[in-house]
Amino acid sequence: VKRAVQLDVASRFQESLVCYQEGIDLLLQVVKATTDEAKKHRYRQKISEYMTRAEDIKKHIEKEKQDGKYHKQIRIEENATGFGYEKLFHEYLTEIVSEVWVEDPYIRQVHQASRYLLYNFLRFCEMLIKGPCKVKTIHLLTSYDEGIGRSQQMTALEEIKQSLSNYGVTLNIDFSSSIHDREIRFNNGWMIKIGRGLDYFKKPQGRFSIGYCDFDLRPCHETTVDIFHTKHTKKM
């Protein structure tokens, strides 16, 4: 709760809200375990104060979203888990989302054991198909792989494209030799920038290890995720 107040004062409202909610849950457990009625009364007063502030913050965040002024930053720590694509994107994949843009220079068959970028992109596409959005078109801008890897890259992307078409989704693929930024945009205005792009997961320990299939259980590389609305970025 002290951390919530500190973040609140620093105007880091999204993080503050999470801390308030966790603090309230812990205080409710304390109330249940306390037999002293005077202490219970004080705890309940504090819980009421924190719940009121948490509701005010929720309203403030919602207004920022509506005004396009919302900016959320997520810091993923080294070896952290629980950051699958659904965790990051689901909040912004509303039902009106029908078109998605992915700009990432490394959606290709990189010959490094630590990277599975084409599979990461496939996993991202699977998330889009599961909804609740109704995606009809995905635009991918990436760079060509080098040497013999290019044919493998093209074969894999074509297979993903054909598979998506079975679900009524069109994949448009373009290549650029000068692309450096990593960015994902939805046609409801939300824009997500990830320092490492879609490649923030560590290599699984083996094909039959926990986290190989479920990305929520896969350890991550350290990276930062910034979420904006295009209304705000245009004003900036």
Instruction: Find the count of extended strands (DSSP E, 2+ residues).
Output: 7
Q: What portion of residues belong to β-strands?
A: 15-25%
Stated plainly, the CATH topology of the largest domain is called Endonuclease, Chain A
The number of domains:
2
CATH class of the largest domain: Alpha Beta
Please tell me what the overall shape is: elongated
Order of helices and strands: HHHEHEHEHEEEEH
Mean pLDDT: 88
So, CATH architecture of the largest domain? Answer: 2-Layer Sandwich
Distance from N terminus to C terminus (CA atoms, Å) equals 33 Å
Note down, in words, how this protein is organized.
This protein is an alpha/beta fold and 236 residues long. It folds into 2 domains: 1-67, Methane Monooxygenase Hydroxylase, Chain G, domain 1 (Up-down Bundle), CATH 1.20.58.80; 71-229, 2-Layer Sandwich (Endonuclease, Chain A). The protein is 43% helix and 16% strand. The protein is built from 7 helices and 7 strands. The chain has helices at 2-9, 13-33, 37-67, 85-89, 117-130, 149-165, 230-235; strands at residues 72-76, 99-103, 137-142, 170-175, 183-186, 190-194, 223-229. A 7-stranded mixed β-sheet has the order 1-7-6-5-2-3-4. Strand 2, helix 5 (117-130) and strand 3 (137-142) form a beta-alpha-beta unit. The model is unreliable at 111-115 (pLDDT under 50).
